[in-house]
Structures are given as structure tokens and as C-alpha cells.
TrEMBL record:
It comes from Caenorhabditis nigoni. This is NADPH:adrenodoxin oxidoreductase, mitochondrial. InterPro entries: FAD/NAD-bd_sf, FAD/NAD-binding_dom, Ferredox_Rdtase, Ferredox_Rdtase_adrenod. The keyword Ribosomal protein does not apply. Belongs to the ferredoxin--NADP reductase type 1 family.
Length: 466
């Protein structure tokens, strides 16, 4: 071997050793010096759409890390159970995993930042895509807000969607107040308003949680916005659904000034906002009847009043339109006022406490970082938008990664299998998930449901060992 070749070999070995640390050369499933490798953090729509695009455009090997015991993020644990057509997006992700078994792997029940650090990911992969959503609900932050039966919309949604080991709220309340003017508030109101009709029986709400929901005593729901009706973040489909619920009278109870402003704004609005505003205008009035849902505006929560057992009983608000204080009876308080984006340790943060982005999808890493780092979806752009918006962003990021690696044919990135094995992280693979999936579907069929979700961590983990 020529001296020059030896030198190159030595340098290559040095880089290799630095990169893989004490890796043993018994790596079973994939050889070193293989195709470029990508780690995706989060298996929600953002990560999965990007993954789908990238697999079609490149020769990447992809490992997906998911904190929950099962995949697909808010599609499983957020989207409402009466919106199964939205959840059908899972079929696309399913087909992607099945078609790409050779180069796509899933590691559920693995929390990046805890089981594996972000730094370890950047050393194990050529590229890392952050798609871990925005998963911490913003707190109400008023005196008494820690009272019993005061819960965030995401906790309530997670509970009825079967998040494992989620605490059960007390639904014996007849007066419910929901703070927030987005779709999550509408989902919570709709599920509470329709549960007792039995219409959710065929959905995928777990039996034990459905039986609690079906017995709900809710007769009065107030949906509060801190600003005026022109500022709502509802989408038209969800809004219309609330007004159509049988046996419920749902109305916007607004001042004459607000109504006049809404009507006058109509000619100036773009089409989507105009249609939404027309629905708002059409459904103004005063509610009556046995079951009522009031949309109230300009109400700013000031205090939660609890009884001697610490259970919520009233919500005190300031009406900023009349400058008066009002007190609403309330035995269940749900707040949905947005999410905080958490930035993983080691990921750069900007002054807004968001991931520091260099452009629309690349993270502003320092020059020493061994991997290219990208971010997409709610963790990158904030908790806004529906799945279609997320899909568009993810298609951009897939294009960007494919183009950044267009000339990369080989890789010495080792992945993190050895670290996972050493730490005995009980991850749930794609095959284990498919067993769970099948069992949930089979169990659901017995009672005419889409699926009967597992609701305890223990049950998920026991499947992993079968
Ligand atoms: C209650 C609710 C209802 C909705 N309903 C609809 C609807 O009907 N239609 C619609 O189009 N859109 C709906 N949306 C919006 C839609 O869910 C989002 O647009 C979309 O899920 C955002 O995708 P994402 O992948 O960025 O985040 P997510 O879906 O939240 O996925 C992020 C994933 O990352 C995982 N993760 C987080 N931290 C880590 C970590 N440290 N390590 C590993 N994994 C991690 C999470 O567990 C999660 O699975 C709804 C949203 C909510 C909150």
C-alpha cells in the first residue's frame, strides 16, 4: 500500500473512531459505510410526511424516535374521535413503513433528551430532523387555577383519546366553562355535548372512558374568548358542527356593537374568513332550552373559586367590554389557550424561546455539530395550523434534505442501537406496534368499534415482549 493511501486510511479510521466511539463491529441490521442516515424525532404528521417525501427522493436510511408507546402523535391522541376521516392519514404512514421495511425503523417509547440525548443523535446520524410538536399546554395562571377539575384542553382531549394512564376528570358537572377560542375548545365542547346521545359509541374512544363520558351531566357550556368574535381561531367545519348538535341550543351572545362590526366587516374579508364570519353572524342570539352552549367574548379569567374540598365551583372573569366582574358557576373548567414550545437540550434557542432556525427548515447549529439539523411542524413554526399545513412544510424539508445530500453516497454514521441496548431502553418497534394495532382493531370489532385502544403503559410494554 502506498504511503499516501495508508495516510488516508489512517485519517478515515480516526474520523470513524471519533464518530462511533466504542462501537462493536457486530452491528446486525445495517453495515457501516452504508447509505446516509437520518434520525427523526417525533412520529406525528410533520415527521411522517417529511419521511415519506424523503424516502421517495433519496437513498436515506431513516430511524424514527417517538416518545409515546405508539406512533403518529396528535393524529392518534389529539384529533377528535368523531373525525375519523382525518385519522385516515395513518393509512399513508402505514403503507410507507410497510413499503420501506429495509430502510425505515420505528423506536416508540424512546424520549429524546432522556433516553438518548440530542447530542448523541447528532453523533449517530448524518442528519437529524426535529418534528416533536408542541406538547406543553400554556397554563391559565390565575389564583385557584390548580383547583380540582381544572384541566387543560390537551389533557381532556388526551384522556378521551386514550392517552395511557391519563387521570379521569369528574364529568358529573352540569356547568362547564371552556376558556379559549380555537378548535380544541370546540372539540371539547362537541364531545361533551354529543357523548350522552351514544353517537360516539362506534368511535375509538376507549370503553372505560366512553362510559364516563356517556354519563356526563353537562347541561350548560360557556366558551369564553378574551377578545372579540372577529378574533376567533375556529375553523368553519368545527364551528358549524357545534351549531348543528341536536338538543343543544348553541349561540354567540354578543353585544350590538360586536354584531354591527361583524356585519360591516363582511365585504372586506377574504373568502375563508368571510364564510366563517357569516356562520358567526347567523348564530347570534340568546340561548334557551335544556342544554345550552354560550359563546361569550371579552371575558378575561381572573380567579378560580373552589369549595372546601378544593373542587372548582366558580370562575370569576372580567368583562372588558362592560368593565364589570362576572361570576360563572363552573364544576369543570377546561382551558385551551395555546401551547408552549419546548426546545430540547442542546438545540439552539432564539429570543422567543423557540428553536433558532437559520431558514425555513434548517436549525442554526454551530459549525462543530457533526450532523445537519432540520426542524419542521409545530416544534419549528409554533402550534398553529391543521395537518394539511404541516404536510406542506414537511414537503419543503424533505426537498431540502434530499438536495443537501444529493452527492452523499456513503456514510459512517453508526445510529444509536448500541446506546439503546446498553441502556436497556424498552422501545417498541414497528412490528410490535403492528401487533398492538391488530389487537386493538380485533378487540374493537367485537363491539362494532373502530378499535379498542390500550390505555395503560403496562399493556403496551407487555406486547413488546410477545
Ligand atoms: C386537540 C387537537 C385536535 C386537532 N384536530 C385536528 C383535525 O381534526 N384536523 C387537522 O387537520 N388537524 C388537527 N389538529 C392539528 C394537527 O394535529 C397538527 O397540525 C399536527 O399534529 C402537528 O404535527 P406535528 O408532527 O408537528 O406534531 P405532533 O402531532 O404533536 O407530533 C409530535 C410527536 O413528537 C413526539 N415527541 C415529543 N417530544 C418528543 C421527544 N422528546 N422524543 C421523541 N418524541 C417526541 C410526540 O409524542 C408526538 O408524537 C389538531 C390538534 C390538536 C391539538
Amino acid at each position: 500500500m502506498a504511503k499516501h493511501d495508508k495516510l488516508i486510511l489512517k485519517m478515515f479510521a480516526k474520523v470513524l473512531m471519533r464518530r462511533i466511539g466504542n462501537i462493536q463491529f457486530t452491528y446486525k441490521t445495517r453495515k457501516l459505510s452504508s447509505k446516509p442516515r437520518l434520525a427523526i424525532v417525533g412520529s406525528g404528521p410533520a415527521g411522517m410526511f417529511a419521511c415519506n417525501g424523503l424516502l421517495r427522493k433519496s437513498n436515506f436510511l431513516v430511524d424514527v424516535f417517538e416518545y409515546s408507546p405508539v406512533p403518529f402523535g396528535l393524529v392518534r391522541y389529539g384529533v377528535a374521535p368523531d373525525h375519523q376521516e382525518v385519522k385516515n392519514v395513518i393509512n399513508t404512514f402505514d403503507a410507507m413503513f410497510e413499503k420501506n421495511r429495509e430502510r425505515l425503523r420505528l423506536y416508540c417509547n424512546v424520549k429524546i433528551g432522556q433516553d438518548i440525548t440530542f447530542d448523541e443523535l447528532t453523533r449517530g446520524y448524518d442528519a437529524v430532523l426535529l418534528a416533536y410538536g408542541s406538547y406543553k399546554a400554556r397554563k391559565l395562571g390565575v389564583p385557584g387555577c390548580d383547583s380540582k377539575n381544572v384541566i387543560s384542553g390537551s389533557d381532556f382531549v388526551g384522556w378521551y383519546n386514550g392517552v395511557p394512564n391519563a387521570p379521569t376528570p369528574d364529568l358529573s358537572a352540569s356547568n362547564v366553562v371552556i376558556v379559549g377560542n380555537g378548535n380544541v375548545a370546540l372539540d371539547c365542547a362537541r364531545v361533551l355535548s354529543t357523548a350522552s346521545s351514544g353517537s360516539l359509541r362506534i368511535s375509538d374512544i376507549p370503553d372505560e372512558r366512553l362510559s364516563v363520558l356517556e354519563k356526563t351531566a353537562t347541561k350548560d357550556i360557556k366558551i369564553l374568548g378574551r377578545r372579540g368574535p372577529e378574533n376567533v381561531s375556529f375553523t368553519i367545519k368545527e364551528l358549524r358542527e357545534q351549531f348543528k348538535i341536536q338538543e343543544w341550543d348553541s349561540k354567540l351572545e354578543i353585544s350590538e356593537t360586536d354584531l354591527k362590526n361583524l356585519i360591516e366587516s363582511l365585504p372586506k374579508l377574504e373568502r375563508k374568513k368571510k364564510r366563517l364570519t357569516e356562520v358567526l353572524v347567523k348564530n347570534t342570539g340568546t340561548t334557551s332550552g335544556l342544554r345550552q352552549c354560550h359563546f361569550l367574548f371579552h371575558r378575561v379569567p381572573k380567579e378560580v373559586v373552589a369549595d372546601s374540598n378544593g373542587m372548582v365551583r366558580e370562575l370569576v372573569v372580567e368583562n372588558t367590554e362592560t368593565s364589570k366582574t362576572e361570576t360563572f358557576p363552573c364544576e369543570l373548567l377546561i382551558y385551551s389557550i395555546g401551547y408552549e414550545t419546548l426546545v430540547l437540550d442542546g438545540v439552539p434557542q432564539n429570543e422567543n424561546k423557540m428553536i433558532d432556525m437559520k431558514d425555513h427548515c434548517r436549525v442554526n447549529m454551530n459549525a462543530e455539530c457533526p450532523a445537519h439539523v432540520y426542524a419542521t411542524g409545530w416544534c419549528a413554526h409554533g402550534p398553529r395550523g391543521v395537518i394539511v399545513d404541516t404536510q406542506q412544510q414537511s414537503s419543503f424539508v424533505a426537498d431540502q434534505i434530499a438536495s443537501d445530500f444529493i452527492h452523499t453516497r456513503h456514510s459512517i454514521a453508526p445510529g444509536v442501537d448500541l446506546v439503546l441496548n446498553e441502556r436497556k431502553v424498552p422501545f417498541i418497534s414497528w412490528d410490535a406496534w403492528k401487533m398492538i394495532d391488530q389487537q386493538e382493531r380485533d378487540q374493537g370489532k367485537l363491539s362494532g368499534k373502530i378499535r379498542e385502544k390500550f390505555t395503560t403503559f403496562e399493556k403496551f410494554l407487555s406486547k413488546r415482549l410477545e
